[in-house]
Write a structure and sequence with these properties.
By secondary structure, this protein is mainly α. It contains 15 helices and no strands. It has 2 domains: 147 residues, no CATH class; 138 residues, no CATH class. The protein is globular.
């Protein structure tokens, strides 16, 4: 726990207010709720594993054990969200999403497919955030974790390059509908995923806060579209995988953090293989994500220079 307080908490906070939450408010909640304590110990174990290769296997196993124990208790508690436990539940829901991303990054030798599988897990785990938020939003925003909730800057447009890439995605879904390859219901599911990507890309033009990047899956609305898109991704639907690959570009925003190091690039590289193999029109949709990833790997700013400094590093 000392390692979590002194080291790991810094890598989870965006600013001084969040740092106080991660080092004081959340540990205080963890004293009362075992699942949250398990989550903090799991996160600290993964962090230690990343920086200590000789102990990597042992501490990764510790992390998985703590995570699994915490998840069982957390899932049992989700059926009874109330004023007393909502703060601990929300904190743990954030942790398990970050941990799903962090697990393959704890071992730099992990295959690209391991990052994809972990991200698919975040799609499923992300439902917990939505459930807790919808039932306790007022309590949470006015409570100990109020600093986690940022006012929306409104609907901002992505930069021109990103906007053009997302427009290509939309046009491709329209062509699938017009050719009767998909029905209107599936077209609407794709459209919701792309629309939410555009919102988050737009948001990131004015802020470096990563909450919406990590939370993209949970932000897809309506709920039935979110669940349908998750199923399509899990089942290998090519259009859904293409949308998911574009999410990889958003995930490049976390590449300076140990827990997000290779996630975006690995997702893009892994999914591009399947999408590219589906035919020339699909291959064209891989060009932008792969191009952005290539620029990062060829010397993009801070590609794999990890920042474990005190908060204040992000706007």
């Amino acid at each position: 726990m000392v390692y979590y307080i002194n080291r790991t908490s810094r890598t989870l906070a965006h600013d001084a207010a969040e740092f106080v939450a991660w080092t004081e408010a959340i540990p205080e909640e963890a004293v009362q709720y075992d699942f949250l304590m398990d989550g903090l110990l799991a996160m600290a174990s993964l962090h230690f594993a990343f920086y200590n290769p000789d102990s990597r296997r042992q501490y990764t196993e510790f992390a998985i054990r703590y995570q699994n124990e915490g998840l069982q208790k957390y899932n049992d508690t989700l059926g009874d969200i109330n004023e007393t436990n909502c703060t601990a539940l929300f904190a743990f829901s954030i942790l398990i999403n970050v941990m799903a991303i962090a697990l393959p990054n704890a071992d730099p030798s992990s295959a690209n497919s391991a990052h994809t599988e972990s991200l698919m897990t975040t799609l499923e785990l992300g439902q917990g955030i939505g459930i807790i938020h919808s039932k306790s939003v007022t309590l949470l925003t006015n409570g100990k974790l109020g600093s986690f909730f940022r006012a929306s800057p409104g609907d901002l447009d992505p930069d021109d390059e990103t906007k053009a890439a997302l427009d290509k995605l939309r046009q491709h879904t329209d062509s699938l509908l017009h050719s009767n390859s998909i029905d209107e219901e599936r077209h609407a599911v794709y459209a919701s995923g792309i629309r939410c990507l555009a919102l988050v890309f737009g948001y990131m033009t004015s802020s470096n806060h990563l909450g919406r990047v990590i939370g993209w899956p949970a932000m897809i609305w309506p709920e039935e579209h979110r669940e349908a898109l998750m199923r399509l991704i899990r089942n290998g639907d090519i259009m859904a995988l293409t949308i998911f690959m574009h999410y990889g570009v958003l995930l490049l925003h976390i590449r300076h953090l140990w827990w997000g190091a290779r996630t975006g690039i690995s997702l893009i590289e892994d999914l591009a293989i399947s999408v590219h193999a589906a035919g020339p029109s699909w291959a064209a949709l891989t060009e932008w994500p792969r191009g952005v990833a290539r620029r990062i790997e060829d010397g993009g700013r801070g590609a794999f220079q990890f920042d474990d400094s005190l908060p204040g590093r992000l706007a």
